[in-house]
Design a protein that fits this description.
This protein is α+β, with helices and mostly antiparallel strands and 496 residues long. The chain folds into two domains: 239 residues, 2-Layer Sandwich (Nucleotidyltransferase, domain 5); 246 residues, Nucleotidyltransferase, domain 5, CATH 3.30.420. The protein is 36% helix and 23% strand. The strands form seven sheets. Strands 17-18-16-15-21-22-23 form a seven-stranded mixed sheet, with helices on both faces. Helix 10 packs across helix 15. The chain binds adenosine-5'-diphosphate.
């Protein structure tokens, strides 16, 4: 048995590969960006060839940089940007067109129609998702309609897939047409309870079962890497969407375990165990992972403007030059002096769900300046995350004991301390911040028998820093109260 596990991390803007030791240390990594295509306003596409080429290059380069021999690689795991939709010819592998990226809004009209036809509750109940163009189902329908391919699809001559399926089909021996349960759960076609494609939803969207991949576990034998790529048929034994892999890489194995990834947006997931919790607060119900045929579920919420709020300070307000500067600026003052920034630039998500709220800077006085605004921007990331956490606690009936963090903005220790203060629980940052890739590697290790239990994979996770709450309760409640008053002022502002 080899001593390394390689994770492929196919993201929205780049393809990445990371070589890990079996005790979770990074040996080498390689990242390759690829172009985004915006053929019309609101449309986003990827060229499938770019995805494939950059992912193969990343894999080969990461292994080369690691100076390891391919015979030492025990397994490969795969994680990916979710929901992005591919459709290809089963005989030739040729895609019918560019992939439609998760951000693409072209199918909003299809979703509006479903909702006005009264299908919203059915979708929510079966899939755990809020009906939205974000998910793959309507993107696939759009492709079948636009390219007039319903008949061909019904004959089984086409393959639909998200990035995981697309990569497995092209990179593995024997071209398996598979997806893992976490990715399937983001299609708006997958029934969370039966763990199968839902015939009622397929009928609603006029999608034939014959074009859908087989749904497999997130850990377990999936296939062998085509030996043409690295010179050896290495087992691929782990697969999960990026946020699910990150939950696994954060070792959130127990019910109530919670992680937040602070990237451009923030993604918070809470493990809810073998029970799919239906949210009363606008959160999504999703798969955590499926192992040994046994589904583990999660609640998911996202903050649209996380690190993007800091990009706004830099690129639009131009009051900072680097994101990292914000930490020192925020620390240079004792507080915002009652200033709040609600970065509802594109509306607010859970628990508010108001598409018409807009960015609001409120509570300013004559003394308000750059430092207060920068600090309010950082605090806003934490306040929004605190609201998600509160919604998760209410929905699940579980008070989380701590919050595990990763992502670019988790490097900001002011932000992490403020998060701990305002949420009233410790915030814990791991040694390996590449939790998404680590999660894919751990799933693959579990699937290959490198680890024999969830406990063994969890033992690979190591804490770096823990931020313990230091704010007194009265100050915390006052801060939250001010934030919620500011959010109220931002709601329902855009004309509609
Ligand atoms: P993504 O994966 O979404 O591209 P990353 O995890 O790479 O995002 O994080 C990048 C985001 O984090 C950017 O929006 C950036 O503004 C923010 N960011 C990076 N470093 C810091 C920092 N030290 N303080 C605050 N925000 C930061």
């Amino acid at each position: 048995m080899g001593q390394y596990i390689v994770a492929l991390d196919q993201g929205t803007t780049s393809s990445r590969a990371v070589v890990f030791t079996t005790d979770g240390q990074v040996v080498s990594s390689y990242n390759r960006e690829f172009p985004q295509h915006y053929p019309k306003p609101g449309w986003v596409e990827h060229d499938p060839r770019d995805i494939l080429d950059t992912q193969i290059e990343a894999l080969q380069e990461a292994v080369r940089l690691g100076g390891i021999h391919v015979s030492e690689i025990a397994a490969i795991g795969l994680t990916n940007q979710r929901e992005t939709t591919f459709l290809w010819d089963r005989a030739t592998g040729e895609c019918v067109g560019n992939a439609i990226v998760w951000q693409c809004r072209r199918t909003s009209g299809i979703v509006d129609q479903l909702v006005s036809d009264g299908c919203g509750d059915l979708i929510r109940e079966r899939t755990g998702l809020v009906p939205d163009a974000y998910f793959s189902g309507t993107k696939l329908k759009w492709m079948l309609d636009y390219y007039n391919l319903h008949e061909k699809a019904a004959k089984g001559e086409l393959c639909f897939g998200t990035v995981d399926s697309f990569l497995c089909w092209h990179l593995l021996e024997g071209r398996p047409h598979v997806t893992d349960a976490t990715n399937a759960g983001r299609t708006m076609l997958f029934n969370l309870r039966t763990q199968d494609w839902d015939d009622d939803l397929l009928k609603l969207l006029d999608i034939p079962r014959a074009c859908l991949p087989k749904v497999v576990d997130s850990a377990g034998p999936i296939g062998l890497l085509d030996p043409a790529i690295l010179g050896r048929a290495i087992p691929v034994t782990g697969m999960a969407g990026d946020q699910h892999a990150s939950l696994f890489g954060q070792a959130c194995m127990k019910v109530g375990d919670l992680k937040n990834t602070y990237g451009t947006g923030c993604f918070m997931l809470m493990n809810t165990g073998d029970r799919p919790v239906v949210s009363q607060n606008g959160l999504l119900t999703t798969m955590a992972w499926r192992i040994g045929g046994k589904p583990t579920y999660a609640l998911e919420g996202s903050v649209f403007m996380g690190g993007a709020t800091i990009q706004w300070l830099r690129d639009e307000l131009k009051i900072i030059t680097h994101a990292a500067e914000t930490e020192g600026i925020a620390r240079s003052i004792p507080g915002t002096g009652g200033v709040y920034l609600v970065p509802a630039f594109t509306g607010l998500g859970a628990p508010w769900w108001d598409m018409y709220s807009r960015g609001t800077l409120i509570g300013m006085t004559r003394g308000t300046g750059r430092a207060q605004i920068v600090r309010a921007a950082l605090e806003a990331i934490a306040y929004q995350s605190a609201d998600l956490m509160e919604a998760m606690a209410r929905d699940s009936g579980k008070q989380p004991e701590r919050l595990q963090v990763d992502g670019g903005a988790s490097a900001n220790s002011f932000l992490m301390q403020f998060q701990a203060d305002i949420s009233g629980i410790p915030v814990v940052r791991p040694v390996v911040l590449e939790t998404t890739a680590l999660g894919a590697a751990l799933l693959a290790g579990l699937g290959a028998g490198v680890y024999s239990s969830l406990e063994e994979t969890a033992a690979v996770w190591h804490q770096d820093l823990s931020f313990t709450p230091q704010m007194d309760e009265a100050t915390r409640l006052l801060g939250l109260k001010g934030w919620h008053r500011a959010v109220e002022r931002s709601l329902n502002f855009a004309e509609h």
